[in-house]
Amino acid sequence: MSALVLSAAPRSALRGRTADAVLGVLLAAGALDAVGPRPALLGLLWLAAITPRLAAIDIAEHRLPDRLVLPAWPVALAAALLEAAAGGTPLLVAAGIAVGYGSLLLVLHLAGGMGLGDVKLAPVLGLAAAAASPTAGIGAPLLAFLVGGVIALVALIRQGAGASVPFGPAMLLGAWAAVLLA
User: Is 164 helix (H, G, I), strand (E, B) or coil?
Assistant: First the structure.
């Protein structure tokens, strides 16, 4: 039955799923290399699994679906709790970074500059990155705004003042860069 379903699916959809899977595996391998077999890896593996879909959906539809973002919250929290219990990043440090990132994006959302999906994703990224290392947790939003700023500048130059740029991919790229480079 699954062969029938796969043969009926458009080839481009299959290529997209394959690319998502390959990117997810590469991110997971990078996370394992960056943090090793520590509890923080749990949150990063979950993040690796959802990153390709989140980025693709945000680019195509300018939204970050709750069905992908909200389940990441308890996984990131569990990873941070286990990491703190194992002597890694203290929970208050990881939680403080997550709350700070989320609060910053909430203020920007209220000012009209960010989507609510970005606000929901920020604490997950902050918590997962900070569990890996406080440096990564602090670097994630900094790199996200750097990447997002460059993308927005290019969009403004190419499309003019009406350009609309999703921020989720920049947030994800910033978090991954911070984790992999920390």
Answer: coil
Angle (nearest 5°) at CA 134 between 130 and 138 = 85
C-alpha 182/C-alpha 171 separation (Å) is 16
pTM of structure = 0.89
Q: Which amino acid is at 122?
A: A
Are 44 and 33 in contact by the 8 Å Cβ rule? The answer is no
Digit-by-digit pLDDT tens for the chain (182 residues) are 344 444 444 555 657 788 899 999 999 999 999 999 999 999 999 999 999 999 999 999 999 999 999 999 999 999 999 999 999 999 999 999 999 999 999 999 999 889 999 999 999 999 999 999 999 999 999 999 999 999 999 999 998 888 889 999 999 999 999 999 98
The CA–CA distances, whole Å, from 36 to 89, 122, 138 equal 14, 24, 20
Q: How far apart are CA 12 and CA 18, in angstroms?
A: 10
Do residues 82 and 42 touch, judged by C-beta distance below 8 A?
yes
Q: What is the DSSP string of 95-110?
A: HHHHHHHHHHHHHHHH
The angle, 0 to 180 degrees and rounded to 10, between the axes of the packed helices 168-181 and 11-35 is 30
Residue 165 φ then ψ, to 5°: -125, 125
